[in-house]
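forwarding from the other thread:

> can someone predict this with zinc ion?

sure thing
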Amino acid sequence: DEQQYLLLNASSRFSPPQGVKLSYGTAGFRADASLLPSTVYRVGILAALRSLKTGSVIGLMITASHNKVSDNGVKIADPNGGMLSQHWEPFADALVNAPSPQHLLLLINEFVAKEGILMDGVCQAEVLLGRDTRPSGDALVDAARQGVTSIVGAVATDMGILTTPQLHWMVRARNKGIQASEQDYFEQLSSSFRCLEDLIPAEKSKFGRMNDKVVVDGSNGVGGLKLKDLGRLLNSLVIEVRNSGEDGGVLNDEVGADYVQKEKVVPHCFGSKDAGIRCASLDGDADRFVYFIVPSESNGRIDLVDGDKILSLFALFIREQMSFLNENEGIKDCHQARLGVVQTAYANGASTNYLRQLGLEVNFTPTGVKYLHEKAAEFDIGIYFEANGHGTVLFSESFIRWLEARTKEISSGSKVSEGGKAALRLLAVSKLINQAVGDALSGLLLVEVILQYMGWSIHRWNELYHDLPSRQLKVKVADRNAVHTANAETVAVSPPGLQEAINAETGKYHQGRCFVRPSGTEDVVRVYAEASTQEAADTLANSVAKLVD
Ligand code: 16G
Ligand code: ZN
């Protein structure tokens, strides 16, 4: 019939590369861009099927995040704006690795039957397409469009060049029936930012406003460009963007959040002239960010203010607002609102101690946004961050409704109580911070407004706690999947004896902590070690790397 013909015809234009096996992994499919047209075409098919199955708009993003400019990748945003349901990942793997159009057709027919997807041409499907600034993006968007439209009744809407979180935000907004253009995104972020600024107590804001310039490394990618657009809507905050990609710099080449966080050195276009200034860095698709300080005797080194410290700042602020709510007599049932934080084993031990000292519940999940996000969604307010700077703050629907009801009562001209102001602030945070996925632009604005609220410099923030020295290594092994882990990757359950050997090494060091895990994005086993001195962390990491080898 028409459907089979369409699929066979279109898929014969995209032959898969020989001898390459791709896996959806933690971040979608990623490879050298020249290998990807058939993969992206097939993910277009998958996205259309997903849209039919869910009766909702689906997103398809073309990006390879912090990887080099010649790479690219593709990933799916589910109806709520989150990551593709893990339940569909095996289908994604099978689909892109099918050797021929006939195999492909067979797989699709089987899967459609199994999932009970109605392909009558009457049901409509829509997929929003986005891409970052990579030169290969244009052709890959076209491949995605052809994939989507090989399913009868499916349309592809090209949203142009976007950050990854912008596309996720748009998918979520569309499915909630909210306006979902880029302008709407900028409007929502800037207006909730202004709302938070207006709620800063006068006596607190003095210091923040004297010190209100932030200098941002855009990684020569999409994030810097979008941040400039957003910055034009904010007149109180000065955002200076460097490495916006407009001056010939190369995407992710000694710039960007991944580089800054891993190497702990200044990115291009930053140096001793920036000593003491508040600096931040975005990754290539702007779903991660970190802050940093250039010390006065820098020699290229930086003081990193990482995802753990961003999490700590957010947690401190939100906990304070929750306590204002609780102290307010008019509010009865809100003490039931649960605040939880979620980290991975990579979180610096000093941050976990700090959060626990605040009395917060700290949860751990394996690496990968989908795991952290899922856990954080269990709370009324769930804050998650990876040390690498990916994270956000999730609000439950019921808590938002409660806040909305609470803030409606108070907007009638009378003097607003502290509890009422706290409710207004929390509601504004829920609009500012991306509810779909970690978003460097909205996260950066939340950091900025909290620092203003606290009246803090970046130095004061950085002093919340002192990171324990740590070391990360990667080990090339014959088969990284021989290593299996449990307890949020903190325990190696195989090969046998490995964990016992790691324990024996770790026990030799004061405040020692160490774990190994197979990377989800590279063919290596990663080693992380922490101890009370840098030398000790280094030796511990090195000796455990030998155990893995
Ligand atoms: C992916 C993950 C990121 C994680 C990283 C770890 C998403 C969207 N991204 O980039 O959260 O930190 O993988 O890489 O989930 P690794 O497995 O190679 O250490
Ligand atoms: Zn990214």
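The chain is about 40% helix and 20% strand. thats all i got for now
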